Structures are given as structure tokens and as C-alpha cells.
Amino acid sequence: MQTYLFYDIETTGLSKSFDQILHFAAIRTDLALKELDRHEIKIKLNPDVVPSPYALLTHKMGIKEILNGVSEFEAIKQIHQWLNTPGTISLGYNTLGFDDEFLRFSFYRNLLKPYTHQYANHCSRMDIYPITLMFYLFKNDVLLWPETDKKISLKLEHLNAANQFISGRSHHAMVDVEITLELARRFLHEHDMWEYLHGYFKKDIDKLRLQQIQTGICVNGKLGREINFQCPVLFLGNHQHYSNQTVWLRLDTKELTEITSETIFEKSRGINKKPGEPNFILPYKERFMKHITSDRKDLIEKNQQWLKENPGILKEITHYHVNYKYPVYPETDAQARLYMNGFWSASEELFCQRFHAGNREAKIKLLQQAASPLLKTLALRILGRESVESLSLKEAEEFADYLKKIHSKNEEEILIDYQGKKRLTPHAALAEIEKIRTEMVLSEEDLGLLMEYEAYLLSIPLSP
Question: Which residues in 12-94 belong to E strands, given as ranges?
Fold first, then answer.
């Protein structure tokens, strides 16, 4: 039986590698969007996580509240089970833009398979946000569309306020799930369009559609409301290193006709597309171009003509983008290496299974026998977060050294993620609090949250 699992998360920050989930909520429905069940978990702050003060101000969960709850290890196991229930289509509002990847890193650092909810046991994923974009652009009579500063806003809280779906505070996980579900119910009334858009999340259907497009229109929220979330694109080819991606060139940039062999990186704009995930690529047909202004159409035509007249530079542009590889940072921290090491081997999977099956004593014994330094590090951190007192003296010292790097003021010691971004430290969080107080207008509730969090940070012994 196929079901939808609408879910939302609130986190300590935006770093998929180093932040954690604090609140998970979900509602399971049948394919007619009738509720079957709901789930909710509050998760205790890990001792190795430094929350962003901006995140606390967003979801209004204070430090005293987040120091209580279920341990991350136990909670993530439960969430993994919910998303991997056979036939589950997991979805939410911008889940493929943020939440899903956050979950993958959470599964990974807790020694759970990070990708099975995408394909195994008839499981798959969708996202209501790009569906909302498509309804706004091409069938916008189904909702009232809110504006801020006289421009469209597709933020979930603004859609809810305009359409009066659900009462309750936004950025509360269960409230946001309920809003998203009501939004989906509105869209489901337009059954043909709902089914058509559903196809964009099915790899085989999306691949077939892409194979029929040479010049198309890319729809993605990141493109911005100033250009109605759309840009024309030219198919360049399949990526030579990332086998599941196609590559497209934006055709609406003014600098395109100025490109030389030396300026491809600076002046050409490539877009990578994975099948079954946003971006959506539509055929370059008049019925999809009503939101593209006449001056942009003129620019597109000019750029297309220039590319025809300069096949040599187009070949160079294509070669650059289909062969581009993201930089690799060898010093990437263990829990940020999800994309760097490929899938686990059979022996590594067995280690993870045995780790989850054993009691604490068995886990500690298994840790001491681990053949993989990476898995040993991840397992040690799980056990250290749960109860450092039960570790051996050597292992407790290793975990303490790890915490010192997190709490250090020394820039050279700060851990980095797979993009080379530094982990937030208590010292940096204190600086962020001061900046917020200086630059933002704060309510009494906000000031109280910051004061409470500041006291917590000052209580942490910082390394020199």
C-alpha cells in the first residue's frame, strides 16, 4: 500500500553536517490525503552541537527546552523507520531543498542507510514547494497568493495567513505539516495537474520528458521572484562525473555574448538537473512563456543566435560544465563525508547492523574491533553523546579532544564540512548574538531567548 508521509523538521541551524534536528513531526495519509496516523518527536541537544542563535529566534525553542527530549540516536532510528516504511512517499514544503538532505546526514552519522527512503521497498520522495510554484505560474486560481513589498511570497506562513488553512505558530514542525497537507489537498482537487506534476518526481518519467527537450524553461524557486522563478536553458549534455545529472546552460544572461575561452567560469551559468528532483525543465513552448517578459525574450533570441554563430565557444562552454567537479577538502570532518566515500561496503554495513542490534556493552566492544577508522569515529561520537562515562579512558579522551576542537577559539582547529565551511563554535555563536542585538528589532521573547542562550554558551569551558 502506498502512503504519503508529510513531514517537517526544526533544527539547530542550516549546516547539514554539524547541526541536528530538534523537532520532527509527520502525518501519514492515503493517496486521497485522508489522515491515517501522525508522529512527533522532540530531540535533546547533543553535547557536540552549537545551535545558531538565528535558528532559535526562528522556531522560538529556547536552550532550556532543547536540553530535554529523546536522544538523537534513538530519535533518528525511529524517523528512519517511518520514512522507510514500505510504500512511503515522503514529502513536505521544500523538503528536497533542505529537510531531506538534512535527514540523509542525520542517518549517516547515526550509522543508518542514508538513501533507502528514496528507492527501496517502493519508497520515494516528492516536494510540495515546487508544485506550489507550478500552480502559481500556470493555474493560480486555486489559492489566494500573498504579497510582501508588493511582490509574491511563497513562504509557507504567508500562504497560510492568506488562505486561513491552520491556526498556530509557524515554524512549529506539526503546524507546518498541517499547513502543507491542507495546501496539498487544494492542489489535489486539480487532479490532472497534480498527476502531471507527480511525474516530475518519478525518475523514469522525468528522464523521458527531458530526452525530448533541447531548449527548455527551468522552474526553480532559487531563481527568484524578480524573474518569476523561471529561466530559459539549453541542454549541454550528461555530466561526465556525476552520472545521474544532466547539464543545462542559462540563455537569459546579458554577459553570455561576452564569453571567451578565459571567462567561461565567470560569465556562463550552468544548471545541473537530477532526474526525479527539482529543477523542473519544461518544453520551450509559448504556453509556458507567459511570465517571460518581451525584453528577456529578445535577449534569449540574441543569445541563441550568438551561440549558433560561435559553435567553437559553445563547445568549450559545454566541455567546462559537463566536466566540472566540485572541490574536495581532504580535511573534511568524519560526519560530513557522506558524499566523499561512496556507499558502504558489505562489511561496513554489517558493522552498522551489529552496532544497532547490540546493547551498550556490545556497542563498546564492537567499537574496539572496528576495522574502518571512519565508522569507528562515528560510532565513538554516538556513544560519547549518549554517555561518555561508559567509555574506556582512551575513548573518553578521544571524545574530549573532539569536543575541544568544537569549543576552540583557534581558527586552525575548527572542523570543516565537505564544502570547506567551518563548524559554528561557542565563540562564533556569541559574536552572532551580539550582531543580532545590534542589527535586529527584537521582541521581549526574542531578547529572553538570546539571554538564556548566551548564559548557556558562557557556561561552556572554551579551549584557548
Answer: 21-29, 35-42, 88-91
